[in-house]
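Chapter summary example.
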Amino acid sequence: MRSSPDPPYADIGIYGELARVARPALKDDGVLVAMCTPENLADVLAAMTPHLNYVSTMALVFNGQGRAQIWKSKMNEMWRPLVVFGHVRHWGASLLQCPPQTANDKAFHHWGQSTGAMRLIVERFTRPGDFVVERF
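The structure predicted for these 136 residues follows.
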C-alpha cells in the first residue's frame, strides 16, 4: 500500500464537501474515516456532521515519527484525531498506535502520511474484500 496525502488540514471546506459526496456513495454498512488536527477537530466535526452519522473520534498516536510542531500552542503533537462516520462493524480500541519507525511519505504531496499509519487505519475498519476509496 502506498501512502496518500491528507487533505490540507486548514481547508475545513474540503471536509464538508467530502462528507456531502460520501453520503450517497457509502453502502449501508460503510464507514468514512478522516484525519484532522486537534486544533481543527471542532470545525471538522461541524462541517461533516450535517451530512453523515458521526460515530466516534479516535486517536492515531505516532511513536516519535510524524509529529508536528505547532508554533501557536508551543506543542509537539504526537497524535492526530480520526473522525469516524457511518457504521463501524466490529469492536476496537479508540486508540491506534503507529508502528515504530513509521515516517511520513512526502513523495507525492506535502501532506503525505506514513504507509504504516494508513495501513493500520484500513486494517482497523475493513475486512478482506472490502472496497476502499482513499480520496486524498
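To summarize the output: The two ends are 14 Å apart (CA to CA).
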